[in-house]
Amino acid sequence: MPAFAPLTTLLGRRALSAATAASLLLAGLGLSAPARAAEGQLRIAQQFGVVYLLLNVAQDQKLIEKHGKAAGVDIQVEFVKLSGGPVINDALLSGNIDIAGAGIAPLFTLWDRTKGKQNVKGVASLGNFPNYLISTNPQVKSIADFGDKDRIALPAVGVSLQSRILQMASAKLWGDKDYQRLDKLQVALPHPDAAAALIKGGTEINAHFGNPPFQEQELAGNPHAHTVLKSYDVLGGPSSGTVLYATEKFRAESPKTYKALLDALDEAAKFTTAHPEKAADIYLKLAGGHTDRKLLLSVLKNPEVQFKIRPENTLKMGQFLHRVGAIKNPPASIQDYFFDDPHTQGGN
Fold first, then answer.
1. 121 in the same domain as 29
2. Range from 80-84, 136-140, 260-264 carrying the lowest mean pLDDT
3. Separation of alpha carbons 132 and 216, rounded Å
């Protein structure tokens, strides 16, 4: 069984607002939103899991700095670890970060909110990864079986990628009017804490809609853990669930830094595809904690996992959010909510 840090108070994390959590964490890291330079400063927020592996590879091999130097720019890169789309979005709009890393659902929320103002759009995908909804309740075989005593952990209630996928599944089962039917059972927790709770047991958490490698750790670490729902089944195939996004202002004022990031991500994707073992070691060094290497390699070599920065199968999520009234602006194509760049052209 994989080892985890002690589980913190589950409900305590929920007491912090997104803005408060972001400001406290960023202040603790010394990132108090200094005045931006036109080029050469890059602050990237990421969350937890192998879905951020391309950033780990770029950080370890200093690929952003490498491509910056090729363009004549010395780039100072900072990586900030946060949890939950609302926290990430607040950090981006407050100027505490330049690049946000989160699910496609938080991107749609911020794209809609800033359209005609800051004009936040997607920068790149971080690859295609399936998300599993895991439960330790033997009575829960499908989402229709969840009851009032069940608690589903995920990064942010109602608005995270996992929560939105669950809403899409709910709408399919019960109709659009009941798309939020399971929101009341959700608890906001970072993936590592949720995995620890599910494996150890003894807390209110008996389900987790997570991402790799945490979902695989749960299936391996608790004999009662089983998969209730897979994101690919809801979305109709492989999908770019985790993406990077930025404001129009940052892209316009830092074109060389922006391009260096995309070039670095593209190189990281090719490296990871060609060398999964080396990429696994990088993840374990930078973010893996006590993740089992064999389990991690099984994730990276899963044929459903694809390392590419061109977004795929994302429009369906935005159209759903508009249909149920979660966002006001209807996305008609990927050009609406992603910046147009050679590396991401042809996405959908």
1. yes
2. 80-84
3. 9
Contact yes or no for 48/95 (Cβ under 8 A): no
When pLDDT is cut at 50, 70 and 90, the band that residue 290 belongs to is confident
Which of 214, 235, 256 marks a domain boundary?
Answer: 235
Rounded Cα–Cα distance for residues 157 and 143 (Å): 16
Residue with tokens 């990421």: 46
pTM for the whole structure:
0.87
Q: Which of 309, 191, 296, 189 is nearest to 245 (CA)?
A: 309
Gap between the terminal Cα atoms of the chain: 39
Q: Domain check: are 102 and 171 in the same one?
A: no
Residues 123 and 244 both lie in one domain:
yes
Same domain, 270 and 215: no
Domain holding 209, by residue range, is 132-235
DSSP letters along 205-260, please? --EEE--TTHHHHHHHH-TT-EEEEEHHHHHTS----EEEEE-HHHHHH-HHHHHH
At 84 the pLDDT is: 80
Residue of 98, 139, 31 lying closest to 257 (CA atoms) = 98
Domain count of the chain? 2
Q: Which of 100, 104, 83 is nearest to 16 (CA)?
A: 83
Q: Residue 287: which pLDDT band, with cuts at 50, 70 and 90?
A: confident
Q: Are residues 124 and 243 in the same domain?
A: yes
Same domain for 247 and 118? yes
* Whether 15 and 115 share a structural domain: yes
> 210 in a domain, yes or no?
yes
Residue 97 has pLDDT above 70, yes or no: yes
Nearest C-alpha neighbor of 49 from the set 307, 303, 310, 299: 299
Helix/strand/coil (H, E, C) string of 37-87?
A: CCCCEEEEEECCCHHHHHHHHHHHCCHHHHHHHHCCCCCEEEEEECCCHHH
**Residues 259, 331 within the same domain:** yes
d(CA 189, CA 195): 9
SS3 category, 25: helix
- Flag whether 346 is in a domain: no
* Predicted confidence band of residue 288 (pLDDT cuts 50, 70, 90): low
Instruction: Read off the pLDDT of each residue in 87-110 and give the average, rounded to a whole number.
Output: 95
